[in-house]
Specification:
Helix content of chain A: 40-55%
Protein name (chain B): STAS domain-containing protein
CATH class of the largest domain in chain A: Alpha Beta
Oligomer: heterodimer
CATH superfamily of the largest domain in chain A: Histidine kinase-like ATPase, C-terminal domain
CATH architecture of the largest domain in chain A: 2-Layer Sandwich
Strand order of the largest sheet of chain A: 14-18-19-17-16-15
Number of domains of chain A: 5
Structural class of chain A: alpha+beta
Largest sheet of chain A: 6 strands, mixed
Distance between the termini of chain A: 76 Å
Radius of gyration of chain B: 11 Å
Strand content of chain B: 25-35%
Organism (chain B): Teichococcus deserti
Number of helices of chain B: 3
Chain lengths: ~675, ~80
Amino acid sequence: MTMRSLTGTGMTEDGMDELLAQFLVEAPELAQQLAEALLALERMPGPGQALDAAFRHAHTLKGSVQLFDLPPLAGLLHAAEDLLGALRAGDRAPDAAALDALMAAAGAVEGWIMGLARDGAGIGLPAEAAALGARHEAALRALLDGPAVPAAAEPAAALAWLPALLAEAADPLAEARSGSQPVTALHYRPAADCFFLGDDPFGLLRRLPGLIALRVTPRAAWDLESFDPFACNLDFAALSTAAPEALRQHMRFVADQVEWAGVAAAEPPASPTVAATRDPGQRLLRVEAARIDGMMDMVAELVVAKTGLAGLAREAGGPATPLGRSLAARGAEIDRLVAGLHRAVLGLRLVPLAQAFRRLPRLARELSAQLGKPVALQIEGEEVEADKSVVDALAEPLLHLLRNALDHGVEPPEARRAAGKSEAGRITLSARRQGDQIQVTLEDDGAGLDTAKLRRVAGERGLLPPAELDALDEAAAMALIFRAGFSTAAAVTGISGRGVGMDAVRAAIEALGGRVSVASRPGQGTSFRLTLPRATVITRVVLLRLGEARFGVPIEAVAETLRLPEAAITRLAEGEAFVLRGRALPLLRLSDLLGLPAAPAGTERRILVTAGPAPCGIAVDGFAERLDVMLRPMGGLLAGLPGALGTALLGDGVVLVVLDLDELAGGAAAPLPEAALS
Amino acid sequence: MSIALEDGRLRLAGDCGVEEAETFLSMLQQHPGLAVDLAEVAALHTALLQVLLAFRPPLAAAPGEPGLARLLLPLLGR
């Protein structure tokens, strides 16, 4: 399909372009939401929010698709809308056949729309779309005449107040859930004349034990002209973590005006909580990511440019002169402002982790069917926010971890039954914020890691010499799975074994400046924990010289810098070493680590000693100044470069590569035998 | 007295009971746009809360009592 056919007719090119641009932004979201609503519907079949949402999304999407010339998409959505409408009207039961067909259709729709969004306006639907669309459409139409819903009682319309309360109280609710506290919801509808009876509903609820959220809504629109201050026109809804008995006791005098509801420990993904966090609403402004990135680049330059002020203050005579002093004071003020600006721009880029979690429920569903392992995926903390780059980059590793948990973690139902567990595995994905970091944990209740097997496999693959393998403690043995070239699957399965092992997960997380750890108990399950920076941070780096090139090293990675005469360096069979305060340290050359030509030997060496439990010396050609830089994850061509933490833009436009000394030296610096230098 | 007009703001203080509702209402109606100072409020009866919610006067100061402030400010959209 060409640009012409996609831009339709009857409108000016400009108006159409604008519509199209908006469509390409909104349609993927709608398609995603449609799929999510269907998933939620599968979990809770029947009339209700999920069905309404699915119908609405299909309807909206159909509406926007019809603006363009995309017949297979429009036809398919039309059929889906019709079927959803029939389900809603109760003309047809939302059974597995209907849901499967809807999900298949939604999958096709999403695939096409993602394709359009990715390839831009110039490219249309794939060639096979027409045939595929017709097939899905026929399947949906065929289902329209299916069995009707058995006349069932409406699910308590009485609890209509609950969704809004849960949506508004998303934060305290998430907090209560993260502490696994049971939550009770109540709705209190005081009598209009309750003030005359001596009731004070707000006062009563203010003292409610375990109160974590309160919502107050006017029952009828306010009549400000003839306002009656003594008629109660308020409804109250509250959430509490206290025991239901205690709550009933507290509300006993108004028990006839109160309605109760238990709140599930975890909400299905299409919960109102999530819907609320995603609802763009009127007050939001869509801004192209590129514009914010542009601002971010300017902030990064500003961070570097401001360091020039310190130099100026020194040149002007430092604190000894008035000019030096006032330059320093202005410098401090600009520091503060730049830090504030940096925070503000970072804030613009924060998005909820839900965006990285979106694909997971469907993947779990597909894999669970494919592997014959029933599993319940529980997601918590999807409202936690992080920088868009972090959230985007997190999606892929999470998919892999989930695949791994289903494939290798959760046992087949027979094995689970034999072990006395429920047949359905449980996988929990949770996220929380800790200061400047976010922590994402994926936990299964499967068989756990078999460290004996891990050691054996690592031995077979020659990852470590046998003696070292035996010396590893349990935690270190578990960490073997993060090593490159390790895969525990005896046979490479179609699901996990795509040549990307856990080492790919580790690499991806470390590229974001994070780390990953694993914990496991035999028979009880495995948990992977990812700790990531919430956003790109300003990092203080030490600049190193190597020949003409400059590199950065985060200041935390450096324990000290030394100047050592050649004579103080001992040559060993395996390399070089030196003694620092009675301790023998291996000495590596940065030029060797980076595969660059070495400088001619002089009479002394400039050495950087790495921080951490196993320090080593790294010889460089020299040290330059220390700088604040904004570190970005390696992207594009450099993404796979080992030994680099990221890049930073310097004031002169030079891109500085910031090195990961741990990774660079980790492989090269074998621990020295204590006696080597004695 | 727990409701007073001081320095161009309407100060509520102490335990503000249902009997104050009418006074509060009429003061707000007589002085539209008058800011309300809740710094000294210890307890606020539903009837007064209702007036605040209906008329949404500007807030000169939030309740000093943290528990009340935490509960009240979100209700007032602050």
